[in-house]
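Example (one chain per record):
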Amino acid sequence: MPDFRDIRDIWVIAPNFKRRLSGVTATLERVVPVQARSLPIAAMGPVLASGVPRVRLRDMLGLRTPPRGRPWRVWHARRNVEMLGGLLLKGLLRAPLRLVFTSASQRRHTAWSRFLIRRMDAVISTSSRTASYLTRPSTVVRHGIDASQFQPAPDKAALLARLGLPPCRWVGCFGRIRHQKGTDVFVEAMVQVLRDRPGTGAIVMGRAVGHHTAFLSGLQQRVHEAGLAGRIVFPPEVPPSGTPDWYAALDVFVAPQRWEGFGVTPLEAMATGVPVVATTVGAFPEIIVSCVTGALVPPGNADAMAAEVGRLLDDEALRRAQGAAGREHVQRHFTLEAEAEAINAVYRGLDAAASRAG
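Predicted structure:
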């Protein structure tokens, strides 16, 4: 059953106005339940995962009055439409709100986005690079994950058999299948890597929708033409609860994106004890310690990607060392608890500022 809360008791609203699952939605669904351990927060939206504390959309009119024991609420937006919603509630309904926005974009904002961001009471950036694209100060709060959900496989051979994979070394790339995500670069790199390494396979797992289905078909045709069908495989996307097993089946994980806002898949792979080869986009340079937890390569460079993956595949001791270092790095620096507390501190900073002003 949905975990509905009484809006009169909720201090922070985290709106999610997008129906289709996205990285932003997944981030909200991970962190809000952890934030709720420390303060009264609830999400609001048409589609939310079970276990996320929430209020009903119809409760929006209740925002016209402050919560019990406080003079105002926090409205924490993560998209333009949610910033606009907060401004309309505050301006038209006179809702007593303080507006917070989390920015993950690593490109110059449109004039419309800049207009909205200027009207926020506080801004959070998901990386230092993201903060550099803003024209106002922000607090950097990097995403975290629940490392307890991602564990190295105690019996890898048994896990491979359960997943229907042959007992060999596997390189994986998980996420949306599209040009922006660099899936084609991964496939080209794997064509190079697998030709010289029998007993090695590659997994491309994710979702391709709309016009991206033609992109996926082109990748599958490329694999067929290279004579690697069956060694570069495209299993169906699995639900989030199933992804930890697929990470644990890997020997190397690759994040080949051409562009990324943040990107948590390298964190999930490292938490599983798998070394990561990633491009120098998004927050990847702030996540991966080069030559310690994996390697960084230029976006779009299949040759460099193939070289780094091949180096890891050919050196089992290096794979083990970087995998162990990656898991420790995530447990120390990228926990959900740390992310939640840092976001909550931004809310409390607004509270403290209001107290000083009063």
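Caption: The first strand starts at residue 12 and ends at 15.
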